[in-house]
Write a structure and sequence with these properties.
This protein has 2 domains: 228 residues, Rossmann fold (3-Layer(aba) Sandwich), CATH 3.40.50.300; 111 residues, OB fold (Dihydrolipoamide Acetyltransferase, E2P), CATH 2.40.50.140. Strand 16 and strand 17 form a beta hairpin. With 368 residues, the chain is α+β, with helices and mostly antiparallel strands. Helix 3 packs across helix 4 and helix 4 crosses helix 5. It contains 9 helices and 20 strands. A 6-stranded mixed β-sheet has the order 6-7-8-3-9-10, with helices on both faces. Strands 13-12-11-14-20 form a 5-stranded antiparallel β-sheet, with no helix packed on it. Bound molecules: adenosine-5'-diphosphate and magnesium ion. Magnesium ion binds next to helix 2. Adenosine-5'-diphosphate binds next to strand 2 and helix 2.
Length: 368
């Protein structure tokens, strides 16, 4: 092919920065057993993409990052960074940097030296280093703090130093292991926005680890949900929230009402006889209804309908968080617009759900 045409063929094709292919890793336990920390994990990250690894403590998030950065070797599988297999490349030569939960800053050095560290040990000239540190400090909002010592900074400022330090060598890929978990709630939310804006501005691919679903939903282009060392689902936030493939993902990403249904001949039947179309195989399944999908007013003629008695009602400002005890489905959690009604505990309530706002999960997909 004409070389110019090859160039055209690449345009519009997203470049993959990180490929994790069937990665598996086990550890020996002190009791002499084996713990499978990662099993058959596959993740692709494109240039400029923000991908989050989301899962409970101990599910393998840190282990996965450590295999990418080179601090841990895989038992099986392969990792490619920028199209190159990195198995033989030591950690310090991979085009990757990591921001750790505890920042790992040097307390005895000032901010400038902490940030310039990666350049000091490579062969970047003094003037160039100085200019790049100033640029970085400006980028993270710490101009004027270059001479401060780490212990003279707040938690949020230390977080920014850690970011500046990780970014100064211009890695292709930045790994962030629960970088915001040491911050209090307000600062954490502010840093979520800053971090996301910074990532968009720099166009560096981020692999971000958290166990906080709100953080994952608000920050990510895509989320990989991990449990017991296995990827449960990988996709866009809305896709995972609205169409989880299993009960674990449904529950981990938000509050779920899960109703047992029986599917046969492309129709799901609820315990009270209501039916809905089902594009899944015959057998038992869960019908997922998010609390905000339930309304106090009928949204359409063919909406699903659930009657019961409010056992609890809490005003949240815009909504009422209501538990509604039903005869056939147990207690349903509903988030009802305060404009629609002001429910009181003890009150009879009818809840409605649009058919396109609910989702079916086959039963065999229930366990991770
Ligand atoms: N070096 C190690 N030796 C033995 N077990 C380990 C080691 N590192 C991690 N593990 C175990 O592997 C599992 C996954 O750990 P980790 O990746 O740190 O989880 P997460 O970061 O999701 O909390 C845990 O059960 C943990 O105890
Ligand atoms: Mg961890």
């Amino acid at each position: 092919m004409d070389p110019d045409l090859t160039k055209f063929a690449l345009i519009g094709k997203p470049q993959v920065v990180l490929e994790i292919i069937n990665a598996s890793k086990s550890f020996k336990t002190p009791e002499g057993g084996t713990l499978n920390a990662l099993t058959d994990v596959c993740v692709n990250v494109e240039a400029s993409e923000f991908v989050t690894l989301l899962g409970p403590s101990g599910c393998g998030k840190t282990t996965l990052l450590r295999t990418v950065s080179g601090f841990e070797a895989l038992d099986a599988g392969e990792i490619l960074i920028d199209g190159r297999a990195v198995t033989q490349i030591p950690a310090h030569r991979r085009p990757v940097n990591t921001v750790f939960q505890r920042y790992a800053l040097f307390p005895h050095l000032d901010v400038r030296r902490n940030v310039s560290y990666a350049l000091d040990i490579s062969r970047v000239g003094r003037e160039d280093t100085r200019r790049r540190v100033d640029e970085m400090l400006d980028l993270v909002g710490l101009s004027g703090f270059a001479a401060r010592r780490i212990n003279q900074l707040s938690g949020g400022q230390q977080q920014r130093v850690a970011l500046a330090r990780a970014l100064i060598a211009r890695p292709k890929l930045l790994l962030l292991d629960e970088p915001l978990s040491a911050l209090d709630k307000n600062l954490r939310q502010k840093m979520q926005q800053e971090l996301k804006a910074l990532q968009a501005e720099l166009g560096i691919a981020f692999v971000f680890v958290t166990h906080d679903q709100d953080e994952a939903l608000t920050m990510s282009d895509r989320i990989a949900v991990l449990a017991n060392g296995r990827i449960q689902q990988l996709g866009r936030p809305e896709e995972l929230y609205r169409h989880p493939k299993n009960v674990f993902t449904a529950d981990f990403l938000g509050e779920s009402n899960l109703l047992s249904v029986e599917v046969s001949n492309r129709a799901a039947t609820l315990a009270d006889g209501q039916r809905l179309e089902a594009a899944i195989n015959d057998g038992m399944a869960h019908l997922l209804i998010r609390p905000e999908a339930l309304t106090a007013r009928s949204p359409s003629d063919d909406a699903l309908c659930f009657s019961g008695v409010a056992s609890r009602s809490v005003y949240t400002g815009t909504d009422y968080r209501v538990d509604v005890k039903t005869e056939k489905f147990g207690t349903l959690a509903a988030l009802l617009r305060a404009d629609d009604m002001q429910p009181q505990a003890g009150q009879d309530i009818t809840l409605w759900a649009r058919r396109d706002a609910v989702h079916l999960i086959p039963e065999h997909e229930a366990a991770p």
